[in-house]
Amino acid sequence: MAADTLYKWLNADGCTTFGREGWDLPKRNGKGWIAGAWIEAAGPLVMCENGIHLCRPGDLIHWIGERLYTAEAQGERLSDEAGDKIVVRRARLLEPIETINDVTLRLFAADCAESVLHLFEAKQPEDDRPRKAIEAARAYALGQINDAARDAARAAAKAAARAAAWDAAWDAAGRCESRCEGRCVGRCVGRCVGRCEGRCEGRCEGRCVGRCGGRCGGRCVGRCEGRCVGRCEGRCGGRCESAAE
Prior knowledge:
Layout: E1 6-10, E2 27-29, E3 32-34, E4 39-40, E5 52-54, E6 67-79, E7 86-96, H1 102-115, H2 117-123, H3 129-141, H4 147-173, E8 195-196, E9 211-212
Parallel strand pairs: 8-9
Antiparallel strand pairs: 1-6, 2-3, 4-7, 5-7, 6-7
Helix pairs in contact: 1-3, 3-4
């Protein structure tokens, strides 16, 4: 029975992403490759703690790095219960997968983003920033735009994602479950994802990320996305339309 094909993702410098240990990389020999030296783990094999971690073909998507190599393993082997890696006693690198490089990885990332773009555009049909960012990523991968143009498109896409996330939070949360009848005079350090329209006599203990449409005479240590008409003694991460008292 033929041995199964195993792989190892590494950074461009030959080090692992998490452990930072370096591998002996394969050397080119004419048209072929000379495998790297064997490395071996001492002590009991423990998933994510001790041993040499490798990928099977189905595991590759979970651990994408900068460079990919085929690998050979010997000795004891453990499989992850989550099913996304194995750990072995002894391994070496055989040769690089030369079609995996900065260009193909960037193009793959753009393809992945585009595959779910319809979900964003269904909710935000007027916002083309994510689509333009995907186009910019492809253009950058192919050397058609510079770093500045790529960075500008990326920043715009992040801003669009943040705006969409806030809209989704408002849609999901709706109004506060409890309604008050007057002025908010308590301390709000809680999580508010609706609208405060009345009197708050109690105290909250989390982060305020919602909208405050009433008067807050206490301390705001969270995020205010609506109109601030009260006294703000803490941090306001949103918009304040009136002067703090």
